[in-house]
Structure formats: structure tokens, C-alpha cells
Amino acid sequence: MDVLARLSLFSPPDYIAVAMLLLLWVGSTRLIEHSPKSRPSTSSLMAAYRREWMVQFVTRQPRIFDSQIVGQLRQGTAFFASGSMIAIGGGLALLGNTERLRGLAQDLTQQSDPMVVWEIKVFVMLAFAVNAFLKFVWSHRLFGYCAVLMASVPNETEDPSALPRAAKAGEINILAARGYNRGLRSVYFGIAATAWLAGPWALMIATLFTAAVILRREFASQSREVLLAQGDRTQS
User: Which terminal Cβ of the chain has fewer Cβ within 10 Å, N or C?
Assistant: First the structure.
């Protein structure tokens, strides 16, 4: 079966649902990472605190507290990277045994689609899991870079290289957090993609719900209000 024949197996609502999934996935990332200054996202606010963290790190003695925090951040990325690998393994297993998946989906939708349709739907979910794995692994490595940069910051606060190196560590820390958050969003939308097994309308609803949850946490959550509280020079 050629590519055009396979694509013809999907209906217009399927294409709309997949386009909505990809658009909201990419669009939410763009909006969160480049939020307007008048309404910064939680991730943008946390980036300011990560820079302030490195400023405070220069004068903190001893610095074991900071190394413990970076270690915990690396553990978080390692945990989700391992979970993504498990999801990838499960997706590959489904690709090799789509008959059972087809039976479950037919019970939900009462439709009898060709096997290749279910394989493509599983492949979309698998693609999100692979992307999440790559983001988590890179984030884990960046946090490692950040730890090395922090270790290179001189103990003498009067050293002219102390603050510049700490600033570099802060920017690497921000990039690591950005990769981690991108991996999480891939997980969220990958979970939403499973709704496609129940049909395109289910995928549309799941995608809108997922995007709404993500954007609410970034722009209308209580944690964001706490970060925006007055009297903190980090917000200036």
C-alpha cells in the first residue's frame, strides 16, 4: 500500500485533529517560552530566580546546598527519561501486536479500520515519547554542565571571574529547565494523542483539555501568583 493510499484511509476530521494536536503542542511551547513581558509565564518567572540563585551561590558558604539542588534536578530528569524509555518500549510492543489494540479500539468506536490505521496512531504516540526522551536526556546533560560550571566558580568573591562564571551556570541551568519542560509537554500531548484511538473528536477534546491545563498552570495558577508577589527584587 503506497503513501497516498494510506493517507486516504483517514477522514478530514482526523487531519484536523492531528493538525490541532501539533499546532497546540508547538504553539503552547512558543507562548510559554516567549511570553509577553506584561504577562510572563511561570517558566519565565522561574528563569529569573535561577539567575538570582547563581548570584547568591557566589557568596554562599558552604556550597553543598547548591550541589544537592542540582543533583535533585538531575534525578528528576533521569526519572522521566527512564519513564519515556518504558513508554517507547510499550509503543514498539504495540506496533508488533496491533491486533489486540484494534479489538479494544473497535469496542470503543464500533469501527473496523485497516491495521495500518492503528499502527499510524500508535506511531504518533511513540513519536511524542521519543521526543520526550531526547529532551529529558539533554536536560540531564545540561544540568551536569551546570554543576561543572558551578564548581569552577572561585571561592573568593573578589575574583573577577566569579560572577561571570556564575552567570554562565545560570544560563545553562535555564536551558536545562527549558529542555525538561519541553519533555514534560511532549509527555502531556503524547497522553492526549492516545485519545485518537477513540476517534478524531476524542483527540480534539483531549488536545484542547491538555493545552488548557498547561496554559492555566503557566499563566493563571496560584504558584504564578506567589512568584509575582510584590517586595521581591528578583521581579524587577
Answer: C
